[in-house]
Amino acid sequence: MRPDVAGAAAHLRRPSGRSLVAAVTLLAVVTALGVTTVLPRPTVAGVLGLVVVAVCLAALYQTTRSESFTPVAVTFWAFVTVWVGFAPLLQIRDRRLPWPDLPLDQDYVSAQVILLFAVVAYWAGNTRRLPAPRPNTSPRSRVTIEKALTVTATAAVLAVVCLPMTGGLVVRFTSRDDLQRAITEAGLKSRQDLALLGLLSTFPAAVAAVALVLCLLCWRSRNFVGPKARSILLGTTAVAVLLNVIYNNPLSANRFAAFGVMLAAGLAIVPFERQRWRTLFSLGMLTGLAVLYPLANLFRNARSRGNLRLGLDAYYTWDFDGFQQTVNAVYHARVHGHTWGHHLVSALLFWVPRSWWEGKAIPAGNAVAAGRGYEFQNLALPFWAETYLEFAFVGVVVLFFFYGRLARRLDRALAATPAGLGTALTVTFAAFQIGLLRGPLGAQIPFVGAAFAVLVVGVLALPDPGWRLTRPPPPVDHGSTAAAPTGPKEMAHND
Questions:
Q1: Is 420 helix (H, G, I), strand (E, B) or coil?
Q2: How far apart are the first and last CA of the chain?
Q3: DSSP E strands: which ranges in 358-446?
Q4: Which residues of 367-389 are buried (b: 16+ CB within 10 A; e: fewer)?
């Protein structure tokens, strides 16, 4: 047998062995979870939850072992596995949900079916094969030092102007309660209209996050021209880091924004080309969501620190109320009917003041919590639950199928070189996707939507100032991917 054929055969045999080990491991994990969480008190909802965990773990393994790094898919599967996969198994077994209310046992199965079909539809859309990414040859869509410098300078100006109007610098390093109190005293927060608050607080934080991503992508591409450009990029990156320490630190910022910025920074600077690093990333996501996510309440306020629970006890707290809120959404839709896009359109048009749009919906999580009579209504609402509330069951299947396709396209765009808008969008979406999945969209989209808008404008719309700080990409030989020359003309041209 020829050496190349023998090598190919060995290459095909190796993944089969790994797949067998992975299948046995997955079966052992799911069996252990079934014995410890479902078997003591068997229910249909518990069995469906176990199926969700099995699907998520299988998909997470598949995406982790794919031919290239897929951060959007990995963060999706890791979050769903922990937040609404494992946690509900404990809650259903012990009949102990995070929020005390009248039980809605009759809607448990419906909630699990919605989630199961959402993840299956996402997986179906995400496994669709796409062509290899083309080299990024468009100067307009490239990430350059000039663009990173412009966005960072914009973020710095916004900080200088807006910080004094939103409580000052010191309050950003106290607590979220202190920041909200300062904002309220400044007259920026009312029940009717939060547009001014978003403009003065949320928008500068989003611009700072985008500035950091662009700077780190420049370092990853090493696209600076000479020592002067490198020094300019170093100073720009330092400013971007400082702005994020001010605006997106875990003491006063929403934890999904704070840890999303940290995750975006890691995804932007680390290429994750080796399989070892991709495996560690997936395991790190699972561990972080299972352990560090509830520990983030240490930064929130004194009350949260006093009520902090560790270990398995943390999975009965409001940090893992995704299953209960899905149940509440099923109840809300049955009693009040579906809303047919009202909350989604209101979330996408977050920048429109309520004084201009009297019928603008509040975040869907607040509406669902109010319908259940909760005193505290600023709660999560999983993306699939909000989709069901808006568009019924068929809407969940259709939307999550195309969501999976979108994630696939973004993950493929990450491999394009040099770094461009697609790379930046993938890094940003993968990092902040967890907040969108937790929901509700009306509470999460203002920050994430502003970041996406700034990213698109900053990369596509900013003119080239001609500073020549960024190294031009190497020329692309469009014939290099063709087959090997077979005739005299092709060989002569190749010589």
A1: strand
A2: 32
A3: none
A4: bbbebbebeebebbbbbbbbbbb
How does residue 84 score in pLDDT terms, banded at 50, 70 and 90?
A: very high
Q: What is the DSSP annotation of 427-454?
A: HHHHHHHHHHHHS-HHHHHHHHHHHHHH
d(CA 300, CA 318): 14
Phi, psi of 335 (to 5 degrees): -85, -45
Q: What DSSP assignment string belongs to 64-103?
A: HTSSS--HHHHHHHHHHIIIIIIHHHHHHHHT--SS-S--
State how far the Cα of 171 lies from the Cα of 168, in Å rounded to an integer: 6
100-115 burial code (b ≥16 CB/10 A, e <16): eeeebeebbbbbbbbb
**pLDDT band for position 195 (50/70/90)?**
low
* Cα 328 to Cα 113: distance, rounded to the nearest angstrom: 14
Neighbours of 433 (CB within 10 A): 24
Asked if 151 and 458 touch (Cβ cutoff 8 Å), the reply is yes
Half-sphere exposure in the Cβ direction for 39 (13 Å, CA): 7
Residues pairing with 142 in the sheet: 420
| Measured distance CA(404)–CA(117) in Å, rounded | 13
56: left (phi over 0), alpha (psi -120 to 50) or beta: alpha
Q: Give the lowest-confidence range in 30-39, 132-141, 372-381, 467-476.
A: 132-141
Radius of gyration of the chain (CA): 24
The answer to whether 50 and 34 have CB atoms below 8 angstroms apart is yes
DSSP H stretches of helix in 271-321: 275-287, 293-295, 302-306
Provide the 10 A C-beta neighbour count for residue 244: 23
pLDDT tens across 63-75, in order? 998 888 899 999 9
- Which is nearest to 225 in space by CA: 145, 137, 150? 145
* Cis before 440? omega within 30: yes
Number of H helices and number of E strands within the chain?
21, 0
Q: Which two tokens stand for residue 241?
A: 């880091």
Q: Which helix (H) or strand (E) holds 231?
A: helix 226-247
Structure tokens at 62: 């598949």
Can you give the pTM of this predicted structure?
0.87
